[in-house]
């Protein structure tokens, strides 16, 4: 940004949007300015004519430069909204996305509010799925695993910030650290992009942890592992819910049926794309899980 900078905040915001020049430039420029100010939108609306402090100008210029270089907004601000929660995120975690809220909805549909159902979230990252479920089902016993110790630190910080200390976090790969434990519902948003997919070198994905994105030649290696392990960890009548790519529904349903699950089906996200496949382990639930 040039030294002849706008003197008012509203003019600085317009200048920042012009510098970004993307479809979402105004929105992103505003988020970055709010971050530099440490203020919310209501404050900015009321103080748009305020003069720009030199420290704000310099901080904003640095943030804009990072975004112009392609760094995700969520990593720049260190925050991302998911469900009803404002979560900490960082390069050690996948950035929570709106389509994953469909997985949360489907999980909640199967977890009665008045029962202490046992729930596992595999590959929790920032803790988004586990914490969203725990916030809506306070009686549920939720455990979340992740192979990344750095990701678990962020997830635990999010749990503390939102008063959801009942969620238990365990370091380990998928269900491996949960030997002998059984659950009424297992949910996961595992890696499901094909290794070598060109999308991994574009946009926000360039900055996100590769281990949370790619999974073998067809993108299904980790889903296969979870489906194979889940029966030993599900109570009778329990559910397994898996997020996946828009073109993987048929393959994931086939994996579920081959493993012995019934009622295997695929649900779509808000963009009407296949997004979550689920199956029920045979038997009668003792917790009233639907």
Automatic annotation (TrEMBL):
Gene3D superfamilies with a match to the protein in the record: DNA helicase RuvA subunit, C-terminal domain (1.10.8.10), Vaccinia Virus protein VP39 (3.40.50.150)
Positions contributing to S-adenosyl-L-methionine binding: 123-127, 146, 174, 189
Region of interest called Disordered, as start-end residue ranges on this chain: 266-290
Domain Release factor glutamine methyltransferase N-terminal: 12-78
Source organism: Pseudoxanthomonas winnipegensis
Basic and acidic residues compositional bias, start-end: 266-277
Job description of the protein: Methylates the class 1 translation termination release factors RF1/PrfA and RF2/PrfB on the glutamine residue of the universally conserved GGQ motif.
Keyword annotations of the record: Methyltransferase, S-adenosyl-L-methionine, Transferase
Protein name: Release factor glutamine methyltransferase
Catalytic activity reported: L-glutaminyl-[peptide chain release factor] + S-adenosyl-L-methionine = N(5)-methyl-L-glutaminyl-[peptide chain release factor] + S-adenosyl-L-homocysteine + H(+)
Its EC number(s): 2.1.1.297
Span of domain Methyltransferase small: 106-198
Family recorded in the similarity comment: Belongs to the protein N5-glutamine methyltransferase family. PrmC subfamily.
């Amino acid at each position: 940004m040039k030294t002849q900078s706008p003197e008012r905040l509203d003019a600085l915001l317009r200048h920042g949007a012009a510098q970004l020049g993307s479809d979402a430039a105004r929105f992103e420029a505003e988020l970055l300015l709010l971050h530099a100010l440490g203020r919310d939108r209501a404050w900015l609306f009321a103080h748009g004519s305020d003069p720009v402090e030199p420290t704000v100008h310099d901080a904003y210029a640095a943030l804009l430069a990072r975004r112009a270089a392609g760094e995700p907004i969520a990593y720049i601000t260190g925050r991302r909204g998911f469900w009803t929660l404002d979560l900490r995120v960082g390069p050690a975690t996948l950035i929570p996305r709106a389509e994953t809220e469909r997985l949360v909805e489907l999980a909640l549909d199967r977890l009665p509010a008045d029962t202490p159902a046992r729930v596992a979230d595999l590959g929790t990252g920032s803790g988004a799925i586990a914490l969203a479920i725990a916030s809506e089902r306070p009686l549920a016993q939720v455990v979340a695993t992740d192979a990344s110790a750095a990701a678990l630190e962020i997830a635990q910080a999010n749990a503390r910030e939102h008063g959801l200390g009942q969620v238990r976090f365990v370091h380990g790969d998928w269900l491996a650290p949960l030997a002998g434990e059984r659950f009424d519902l297992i949910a996961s948003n595992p890696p499901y992009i094909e290794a070598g997919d060109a999308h991994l070198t574009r946009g926000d994905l360039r900055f996100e942890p590769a281990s949370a994105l790619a999974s073998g030649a067809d993108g299904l290696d980790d889903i296969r592992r979870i489906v194979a392990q889940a029966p030993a960890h599900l109570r009778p009548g329990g559910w397994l819910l898996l997020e996946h790519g828009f073109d993987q529904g048929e393959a994931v349903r086939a994996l579920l049926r081959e493993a012995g699950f019934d009622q295997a089906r695929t649900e779509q996200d808000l963009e009407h794309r296949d997004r979550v496949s689920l199956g029920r382990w045979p038997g009668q639930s003792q917790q009233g899980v639907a």
